[in-house]
Amino acid sequence: xxxxxxxxxxxxxxxxxxxxxxxxxxxxxxxxxxxxxxxxxxxxxxxxxxxxxxxxxxxxxxxxxxxxxxxxxxxxxxxxxxxxxxxxxxxxxxxxxxxxxxxxxxxxxxxxxxxxxxxxxxxxxxxxxxxxxxxxxxxxxxxxxxxxxxxxxxxxxxxxxxxxxxxxxxxxxxxxxxxxxxxxxxxxxxxxxxxxxxxxxxxxxxxxxxxxxxxxxxxxxxxxxxxxxxxxxxxxxxxxxxxxxxxxxxxxxxxxxxxxxxxxxxxxxxxxxxxxxxxxxxxxxxxxxxxxxxxxxxxxxxxxxxxxxxxxxxxxxxxxxxxxxxxxxxxxxxxxxxxxxxxxxxx
Length: 347
Hints:
Elements: H1 2-23, E1 34-38, H2 79-86, H3 131-149, H4 151-159, E2 162-166, H5 170-176, H6 184-187, H7 190-210, E3 215-219, H8 228-233, H9 243-266, E4 271-275, H10 329-343
């Protein structure tokens, strides 16, 4: 059984690499612009100037990224970076922190480490740009595009762009499951908390729609109970993962799928799509034949982030996690490629 699982995974990885080599070709991008919202899974440096411990503009972060550390929470490219390459962009989408006027027509990355759907999420670590603030920043960019192109041309341009939101995990990891800082777990059952999150998220998505978004992908939350931080700090009760944490986010994911269905029914001029977060912390790794490592690749501090300037593991393509929360570039490549196969349907 172990050999069979390893064989199946090897074939899967081979197919991913083959697809990547065939589909990642130079030419015109499949969309004129690409806007990214979310948290540390897709942050490209927006937290660098904020007063927070949730910033990683130091080595060994970026050890495999061109130019070194940028504020990306991984060793190389994020899942959003790789999605951009699959969409046909030759350059990485700039962060809101660094974007200039000549770049905004191709898109902006607004994501912020430790941020979430709720305003208070992640604030025990310091400042962040919650999703509503990211949408405010996007409106600033939209206004600049209108000034450049005029109302009609700007609207047409923005309608053709791809918008991707990767958020929600911090509303659990850095809110609901931190009762020492937040009271949400005493206010809500897991089901009611998911309901409250989706209600707020739906309003935020409508704000994005009203600013011109017509091709929108929203990510489900991955199995946070399988992250090294979770298994090290919470009782797994003999399971591979912290199952009650995964159960909680499943309420969110189910409601998010329903929300996407409603949006597609109600907004005929737009296309919304739900993207599964690949659960590499679960069924594949349950087999002893699985050759990836589930522990992080670097020495970490009390926040689960890499200790500055420490030497990370050498075989980073064999690790799913970079630190105690964030995936390695190889994980991001697998996730982005799988997601792109779905995203192609709305482009």
